[in-house]
Amino acid sequence: MRLFFPLLHTNANYPTGWLHSSWRPDPTVVLGCFALIAAYLWWTGSRDRDASGVQRHQIEGRRRSAFVAGTLVMLLALSPPLDDWSDSYLLSAHMSQHLLLMFVVAPLWLVGMPQWLLQRMLIRPGVRQIGYAVTRPVVAFGIANAIIAIWHMPAPYDAALRHEPVHVVQHLSFLAAALIGWWPVYGRLPEWPRLSKPLQCLYLFAMTIPGGAVGAFITMAKPGVYTPYLQSPRIWGISLETDQQIAGLMMWVLVSSIYLALVTVIFFQWASEEDDRQRGPMPRVSAPAPDGSAATPGVTG
Asked: Could you say which of 169, 178, 268, 279 has the lowest number of CB atoms within 10 Å?
């Protein structure tokens, strides 16, 4: 599984190099991320050319940049030093990994995937119906937040920290939850339509509630809610309690702030579009008459 989709690797020993890191990235993580980028560029480039070499579909450069950037962020999140800190020392570093995957990687992938490439999935039996069902706002909201809440319970979280296969499943689940959860806002298939801008604002506001509840639980729980960190050496003078509070506040305050900032941006975009629509097209003004007199606006001779 790691060769197919590289995710987290768990180290039994505490890294002791500079900045408490081994600075040894997992080769499967590096190769896997660059293979993903290569496959994307091939599908949207040479694979999409006809026999004469002409590109069948046009793709904007910003979309390619978004997908590549998202994959590189995943590489940074799953490589030293953040990966070493996450595995061995700090819950807050582990939370940073999760937030990068869910709030940077997944949205950039959705922005970067062209519509025509996504539509190729729809020819497979059942994909259209299943995809439509899970990307409906209420279902997407429920699935995404259920996955996040379950994995942040102490028993599943501890199991992920202790067992690499479970950790791989956890990160795969977080990416899947994020892709489903962001679809009503960033989805690009008309067959699985996203929400209108006013409903996007309502949806994103609702998304602050479950994550805020999980973040509040972590913040206010007794220190050591996730037991593997009880034995971790404390680095940079960050106590177990402070580390856990930072992690909880990231999920409670930071995540809510991101959602509310997006609500603000989307609301003003919608308000601007509505204002332009109500104004209608600008009246056409005719050129002056040859004798220098003013022509009647909107009337041509």
From this structure: 279
